[in-house]
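Quick illustration for those who missed Monday's session on complexes.
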Amino acid sequence: MCGIVGYIGKKDINKILLDGLKELEYRGYDSAGIATMSDGEFKEYKAVGKIKNLEKKIYQTSETKNNTDKSSTGIGHTRWATHGKPTELNAHPHLGDYSYVVHNGIIENYKELKDELIQVGKKFVSQTDTEVIVHLFEYYFDKLNDSKKAFDATISRLQGAYSILLITQAQPDKIYFIKLGSPLAIATCSDGEYYIASSQSPLIGLANSVTYLEDGISGVVYENKVEFFEKNKRVTNDIKWQDLPISKLSAQKDGFRFFMEKETYEQSSVIVDTMMGRIKDDEIVFDEFDSDFLKNIDGVLISACGTSYHAGLTGSYLFERLSKIRTQVEVASEFRYKQPLLSNKTLFIAISQSGETADTIEALKMAKKAGLKTVVVCNVDNSSMTRVADVTILLRAGIEKGVASTKAFSTQVTVLWMLSLYIGKQIKTISNKLLKSEIKALRETPKYLIIDENIHQKCQRLSKRYLHGDGFFFIGRDVFYPLSLEGALKLKEISYIHAQGYPAGEMKHGPIALADEKLFTIALMPKGLLYEKTKSNVQELIARDSVVLSISPISFKLADDFIKTKDSEHYMHEFFEMLVVLQLFSMEVAIRLGNDVDMPRNLAKSVTVE
Ligand code: M6R
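Prediction with 5-amino-5-deoxy-1-O-phosphono-D-mannitol bound:
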């Protein structure tokens, strides 16, 4: 949640900070702001809403318009509100008397600190937890007259997970930073300038060398130099610098209307990357595992949030069916507080696109602490989860920018499908015959993710009809049940229409009471899995006047609308084809409603608060 940028150097600082914030905007867009410093003097700009509002404000002043602003040090932030409403007063950077701070994450003990600071005369203007940081810093600076010591004293008082940048008139031309539980990277280039950001995308194209900070690392960035500290001791050797990719091309929209649309269309090609090198002849190969890693494993426990949870739920059907291993799936925010009984013979799998979801990180840490072998299935290398888990399996989906997750889900399911086969082979529960036929099906999967333009156009047409009504049920059986959950989540998060995924067979145990002509049902009716059973459940709804859109390779005359998918031998092919239909359908409904598909209200791409 939220995004941070910082810069020290001689280039156009307003442009660099703004461009960086635009790259991070998908992480939160309630408000944004920057603070820059030139010859010890501050300039501050803040705006509610998207970065374009901030940009307008910045370029209203003559200095910025004529590019005569000589500021050389600056920090910026795009916010997803946690404490306090999305107002300018609550927007970062937060000012004390002579310092500014930006912050990602949460300061858990901010109330106590605030009370303490109010008692010594500090005045607060915002409702945020962040503001305590800047007042605390100045409180210590006034006592110690040393900004490094004051920064250290400040961070020693903070509880929670955070990354922070701070600039101060007390020592201009420096940026103080700390990373603890929320990502932060520092990058540099041959000019010796320094760029700081909470993820790598703002750094690409500007810098060529980057370090992703470990938890507990703080430091100071100067013009031409950076110093790192851990618990007040200077660290040098442990800081690993690596090359940054040089092209931003993959992160652009390529002529699609929205990133979500582009990412939906990309799925067929990215799952080829996901599988690359992992299928050899009739074997699944995961070089990520040591040969005895899965020895003695007698169960799998998957934990994740949102779309990643739906991938996990899909995976649980595949694990039990194909590798015959007992599999449990837990929503991470529930798992971490339920005091679960954990066995170290269980393989723990965290699933996360970003690798930064706070609840999933905690679930992973709990499992690791309890002695379980841990794996993360993740799209972002060098993310927090990849640093905790014993084994990382990367999705290779490329940057996913749309808040509504698409290609992360299809690649997650692909990895879990491959993992179920790999584990089955390792623990000798899958026959060679089944393994071979599943691998054949896996290899054929990319073609089921190629988008049929007729289906896309049909979704466009249908979106008109399905705008009204009291809400949606998405129903399916077996793996089509988690798919129905995913379809409903897609629709609600970008169209803001109420939608619920449900097991088709459960409707008659209560929800069918809602059925009438204002209730829309999206029925997932695969040919290859429990077709007749699902059909009976759909008929029960039709008999009660629900408007039904059937998605199936088999034409179903009783339904009000019908999207015909391809015939296939394998139910997972039907799964992936229906997934695309659901993604396109929800996107077209949201577009017709005029919503911002890539940045839906109240959401953020990466949820780094619990
Ligand atoms: O980065 P993660 O996969 O851990 O994120 C988990 C959820 O926040 C995420 O999948 C969310 O549900 C998506 N916006 C859904 O499209």
